[in-house]
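Following up on my earlier thread - several people asked me to post the actual chain instead of describing it. Fair enough. Here it is, all 352 residues.
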Amino acid sequence: MDGHHGGSGRHTTGGVSLARESSRDVAHHSVLSGIVTTTLFAVGAASVVAMATVATVGLDALRSMVEIHPTPERGRVSGHASERKADGDERWFHLTCRHVSVVRRPGTRLHAVMLDPDMADPPAHRYVICCPDELRTGRQAAATAHRFARMGANVLVPQSRGDGGVQSRYRGMGLRESGDVIAWIAEVLVHDPQAHVVLHGISVGAVTAMMACRQARLLPRGVVSGIIVESGFANAYDQLIFSIRRGRRLPAVPARASACLANALCRRRAGYDLRAVDCLKALRGSRIPTLFITAGRDHVVDPRDADRLFAACTADIKERLFVADAIHGECQEADPRTYWTAVRDFLSRCLW
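Reply from S.P.:
Thanks for posting it. Predicted structure:
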């Protein structure tokens, strides 16, 4: 009897102990589940916020890069002599220019202005096409055109897409514009079959000129005598990633995610893939003499692109000019003497 009661007492005590342990386990599991749920919720919320941030950054970058916005006139050139020179270029431009147009395809008409040589006895058959870039002010474009006109060139200045030229909400980042340039060259050849054309471009205009290299192979040999490019980037998709990383200070992975989303949106809205804007691919196999001009204080374009572009170019004549004190797209303004001496020497070597 004593043994039985003792056993029964120990059994009962053990059951209570197990019940208490079970209650603690349930409580621990409840607390743990709560912590896990809260953590997962926090992680999920953070992921949603991160994804929203990535999408917003990509959309903002795409808008600034691809959408066309009216560009305000930038500050006036400093110094009285420079002011008078710039005003003189603009007066010459407006007094000399004549408006021309050409139909590229049904429903698409391209517009440009043509300027005659500004010298007494200009050489025949010389043309320069100044590829458009929205960042250039009218004053800067006039100054560039006047310089080439004083070298004896007929200067064609196509209007930008959405700027009285081809009406579009989106710029082609040089991809579509390069086709426009080829159409203009074909139009020049209709009026002057012996024409020799030089392409000049700055920033996106430089990309347009480089992208035109591939299509220029469809033209008669030697028609495009040279290309002068300043502050151009190597690839539009890589440039978008660089802009996101620099502008938003994002690490590589979220920056690439933002660029991927932005590119998908670009394909849907603008109708092209940013990866297709590949100047490295366009320059490979090119035999067109090319002058690459780099701004020493350019923080807009990846600084590695200048070396990559020069290495990719397979032309027998390819040259570089580095303007140390220039910012993006303003090498002419930073050191005009060096700039135009290099351009003139380059053109003489192109037998232009």
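Strands lie at 98-105, 108-115, 126-130, 154-158, 196-202, 224-230, 290-295, 318-323. That should answer part of your original question.
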